[in-house]
Amino acid sequence: MKTVTIFTPTYNRAHLLTRLYNSLLNQTNQDFVWLIIDDGSTDNTKSLVEDWQSEKRIEILYHFKQNGGMHTGHNKAYELINTELNVCIDSDDYMPNDAIAKIVTFWNTTVDKDKIAGIVGLDATENGDVIGTKIPEYLKKGSLSDLYRKHHVTGDKKVVLRTDIVKKYPAYPEYENEKLVPLGILYLIIGKDYDFLYSNNIYCIVEYQENGSSNTILKQYRQSPKGFAYSRLIRLKYIDDWKINLKDAMHLVSSTMFMKDWKFLLKSEKKIITLLSIPFGIALNLYIKTRLKDN
């Protein structure tokens, strides 16, 4: 059995997948399987993947599902994966030629893995510039949240997960007519029970698309209020920092207004902070509505 599953949730991105495919062909270590989760594409994604499968140059698994958004693609991937490690590489990204080699070598030389959930590595641009900042070299392990909050690391990072640990945790909730639940909440929950190994190896080359989730966040915020509210409830539960809690509570109030269900606020585990945040949440909600009208 292979060591790593590279999984790619994709929706109508056939025009981008070839670059990722070529990067996987060029991996110096082929100890991986590529799992493509087709989130209801209507383009030629399926036929393209079938052509690649017929070439038999790398092991490719393909699963088609009804369109439900990125988080549902992750849910399905975690159901299907049976390798020791997994890593998500989005359809508009690709991997440096030595990425799998570095992941496998780093993991196989690690001792005392019982309390280790995986690896946190780096994302970079096409010209090799690290997204945000590197991880301080003196840090060897900890949570993803600690990197940002305690050590002031910035920018997206690439998370490699132990599959058996991921399967211990609840799937992302899937709400009817909503397409987004922020993915970071899973890493936050896992980080309370397990450490991640830190690595300054580059595992992913990223390219942010104009129509990608990073650039349409306000629209998605309004269209998926339950998903965003759920993520804020998780953050309020697992993060103990009143400034961050106040911001999350403010966003919780705003999302609650979009879903028109004030009872959702009662689920907050930090009720006083949530109560104090109501005026700010109302203001945020009005600001988002105004911004969306302007666009």
Task: Summarize the structure in words.
- The protein has twelve helices and eight strands.
- The protein has helices spanning 14-25, 45-55, 70-80, 99-108, 144-149, 163-166, 184-191, 217-223, 225-238, 242-259, 271-276, 278-294, and strands at 4-10, 32-38, 60-64, 85-88, 116-124, 141-142, 157-162, 195-205.
- An eight-stranded mixed β-sheet has the order 3-2-1-4-7-5-8-6, with helices on both faces.
- α10 (242-259) crosses α12.
- The longest helix has 18 residues, at 242-259.
- It is globular and about 55 Å long.
- The mean pLDDT is 95.
Layout of secondary structure:
Blueprint lengths: L3 E7 L3 H12 L6 E7 L6 H11 L4 E5 L5 H11 L4 E4 L10 H10 L7 E9 L16 E2 L1 H6 L7 E6 H4 L17 H8 L3 E11 L11 H7 L1 H14 L3 H18 L11 H6 L1 H17 L1
Parallel strand pairs: 1-2, 1-4, 2-3, 5-8
Antiparallel strand pairs: 4-7, 5-7, 6-8
Helix pairs in contact: 7-9, 9-10, 10-12
